[in-house]
Write a structure and sequence with these properties.
The protein is of the alpha+beta class. The protein has two helices and six strands. Helix content is 22%, strand content 36%.
């Protein structure tokens, strides 16, 4: 399982630390990389498209509505923190296969 810095419970939900690689061949979770979960996305990092693709991908993978996800930090960089409500940290790790 990912360590407590990668997927952690907060008072507002579960925070997930991610490293996102845009313009990849496919959308996929690569695995753990340092303190983050590495994700590849097909979308380009232009006009917020990669961020929207990330949230849509996570919603599908975590089986939650898109409204349950919020990009907390990292809107313009590869290192991001996303908050999800309605799940536990253990649920997130299990659904990511970690």
């Amino acid at each position: 399982m990912a360590d407590s810095r990668t997927i952690r419970t907060t008072s507002q939900g579960v925070s997930i630390t991610l490293t996102v690689i845009p313009r990849s061949g496919r959308d996929e979770i690569v695995g753990l990389e340092g303190d983050a979960i590495k994700i590849r996305l097909k979308a380009p990092p232009v006009e917020g498209r990669a961020n929207e693709a990330l949230l849509a991908f996570l919603a599908k993978r975590l089986v939650v509505p898109r409204a349950a996800l919020e990009l907390v930090s990292g809107a313009t960089g590869r290192h991001k923190v996303v908050r999800v409500t309605g799940l536990t940290a253990e649920d997130v790790a299990t659904r990511f296969g970690l």
